[in-house]
Design goal:
The structure is a homodimer of 316-residue chains. Chain A has 14 helices and 7 strands. With 316 residues, the first copy, chain A, is an alpha/beta fold. Chain A folds into 2 domains: 209 residues, Rossmann fold; 53 residues, no CATH class. A 7-stranded parallel β-sheet of chain A has the order 3-2-4-1-5-6-7, with helices on both faces. The interface between A and B is large, with 52 and 52 residues.
Chain lengths: 316, 316
């Protein structure tokens, strides 16, 4: 099936076409560029919600509950679970995750897990591309779930329109969150497992930290939602807060600002990679070796040699 | 004084001209490029010896003793002390270091300390440039002393023709050295403070590790020299081993190979920095913002936008 046919099938809701496109994107297949070009006119419609937090706070359960809530509204939902610690990628449908089983056979839900190929344990570079596939496939909401391992928490915020940071009572998470810069990226806080001892303490700690920070939220003060996701408690409240944030994003122009900044970062990263590869090509093409020999011989200096190398890059 | 006059004065042995040139290089002054161009024909003659090791092993004392030994032969000697932990840079002449005082007034010795501006605590990017200044000033030997803080140990090896790794008894250094990949970079090992308990154990541990490794030394097996640098003991032996390594470098073609690889890495780093700056210029020039807005609008995809950005870079 051609790329154009695949994209048409995906836009018509074919789970198989969606899976195939994400695989092409993940594998950085030769078709990657034509896939991205074909997706471009279809993208930008999905509302992207990131969920992050330490292992054990209940991210998958909360994600599954959110899928249910958005499905009740009749929205098509995509789920991208990025696991930086997993060596597995690609086909896994997460059907084995207890709560996600409810949705595994629902044709209005696309679920995909990705391993991280990212730098330093962060998100995979293919994550934004996979988001575009789900977006083009007509998902009105895409939930990106990522284990909060250091950098990934901050990175998920750079991908999402709204970022949900999950905590659980008694895990010292509030303090950790403050340390890790999570306060700056959270649009909504969830204290999950709120039926446990210490939930109110966690909420109070968070509230104190929020009131102290000013943060780059441009007037948005992140609300704190108590949930017991395993029993569906508080999920409606969470959806309501997310709706408020979405409305705020749209009314303030913050949505366009965030998405433009995100696209700029993505373009810049791709451009730098391309330039680096061109330098590498020149290296293999002996241009660099020749220049290095000239520097060693005292015939030129490293700056002039670098100029020549850059000129070589620009001539390719 | 013009750059050309400064370089002429430095080549004639003016300590003031040498100091001024290193400052220009360190400060990345606008004259940097013309300085580097003027130095090029004068460089490549100095023999560069790196010394590294943990704090407290006696690097400065050993360096000072080596300066004395090379001065006895009538050689002009440069010393570059790179301290990644120091916020100070520039003028400090290290005259306050006890052993170095002997040489502070010797017109045949240039001593300079540099703080690190390097990435992640490594060597300053200006270090290779400063080496070129000392080289052009007629130093026949340049000793580069760097505190062994992680990456710096490996980096000094990439700058030097011969790398000396210092250890002291009872510091667990041999094991640390093995962990840090020091075995791969050491051309000569020094067990300093060899009059202390445990020196023979350290030598034995090292010998075992050397015999197990094969290393990328192309036939050179790093010797182990016992010294008590504070009393000058073992320094003649160390100089002899360094002479043997120097002869080996020259006879095997390894010297040219190392220097060419070093120049290539330097050129590539400068070229990448230049390309990155050009991308930054485009960013400020709104080209990137415009492209990002097109991606958000679905008019183009990030790869095509990156192509446009790279094309923009190459047109500058």
């Amino acid at each position: 099936m051609s790329v154009a046919d695949l994209v048409t099938a995906a836009a018509d809701g074919s789970p198989r076409a969606v899976a195939r496109l994400i695989s092409l994107v993940e594998d950085a297949a030769p078709e990657l560029r034509s896939v991205m070009a074909a997706l471009a006119p279809l993208s930008g419609r999905a509302r992207i919600v990131g969920l992050t937090g330490s292992p054990g706070v209940g991210k998958s359960t909360t994600t599954a509950a959110l899928v249910g809530a958005f499905r009740t509204r009749g929205l098509r939902v995509g789920v991208l679970a990025v696991d930086p610690s997993s060596p597995f990628s690609g086909g896994a449908l997460l059907g084995d995750r207890v709560r996600m089983q409810d949705h595994a056979l629902d044709p209005g839900v696309f679920i995909r897990s990705m391993a991280s190929r990212g730098h330093l344990g962060g998100l995979s570079w293919a994550t934004p591309q996979a988001l575009r596939v789900l977006d083009a496939a007509g998902c009105e909401v895409v939930l990106v779930e990522t284990v909060g391992v250091g950098q990934a928490e901050v990175e998920v915020a750079s991908l999402a329109d709204s970022t949900v940071v999950l905590l659980a009572p008694g895990m010292g998470d509030a303090i950790q969150a403050a340390k890790a810069g999570i306060l700056e990226v959270a649009d909504v806080f969830v204290v999950n497992k709120a039926d446990r001892d210490g939930a109110d303490n966690t909420v109070r700690d968070l509230r104190n930290m929020i009131s102290q920070g000013d943060g780059p939220h441009g007037g948005w003060r992140p609300p704190i939602v108590k949930t017991v996701a395993a029993r569906g408690e508080g999920i409606d409240d969470l959806v309501e807060r997310l709706d408020e944030h979405w409305a705020w994003l749209a009314s303030t122009g913050e949505l366009a600002r965030r998405r433009t900044a995100r696209a700029a970062a993505e373009i810049e990263a791709i451009a730098l990679t391309a330039l680096r590869e061109r330098l590498g090509d020149l290296h293999q093409g002996t241009a660099l070796d020749t220049l290095a020999a000239s520097v060693v011989a005292g015939e030129t200096d490293p700056y002039a040699a670098a100029d020549a190398l850059v000129a070589g890059v620009t001539r390719i």
